[in-house]
Amino acid sequence: MMAIRMVARKLRLYWSLTKSLQAGLLLSTALAGYMSAPEPLKEWHALLSLLGSMFCAIAGSTVLNMVYDRDIDAQMVRTCWRPLPSGQVTYREALTLGIGLSVAGVGWSLALSPLYGAVVFAGWFFDVVVYTLWLKRRTAWSIVWGGLSGGMPVLAGRALALGAVDWIGIALALSVLFWIP
Questions:
Q1: H/E element holding 104?
Q2: Hey, is 90 helix, strand or coil?
Q3: Strands (DSSP E) along the chain, which ranges?
Q4: What is the pLDDT of residues 101-155, one digit of tens each?
Q5: 67-90 burial string, b = 16+ CB within 10 Å, else e?
Q6: pLDDT reported for residue 41
Q7: What global pTM score does this model have?
Q8: Distance between CA atoms of 76 and 164, rounded to whole angstroms?
């Protein structure tokens, strides 16, 4: 019984690394993009795959962001309680989780549709590489460039439903981008 509690506790810590409320918000925009297409519910498994792949990609990028920011999170009252800076989850555990979720999400997306996968990868890339690793600690303008990743789920959802990127999807993504700052 003690082992089950320990595993459940660790899973709760891993779950908190995914920032599930933020992920849920981004998932809702992906769903909105998907549902904005004509006749979006042709196949229920496509909808479930959209949600699963998108969650993995979003959660993976979020965990990797928290891995990179663990040092500054440890210094802020608002974030020092998080699992990484508080030592409840190790660097290696979080890095493995972030990479695993990212590979699963982007890989699943590519398997569903190369176009959808490319948009999901673009969102992951802008969040992890451009925003987190390159700009976040260098400029306040990072939020604008990082905001591109926030607009990708709605564009990806629409691209999966249509099989194309159209001006409506781009307008939806831009509306998210301009809302973020």
A1: helix 91-112
A2: coil
A3: none
A4: 999 999 999 999 999 999 999 999 999 999 999 998 899 888 888 889 999 999 9
A5: bbbbeebeeeeebeebbbbeeebe
A6: 67
A7: 0.93
A8: 43
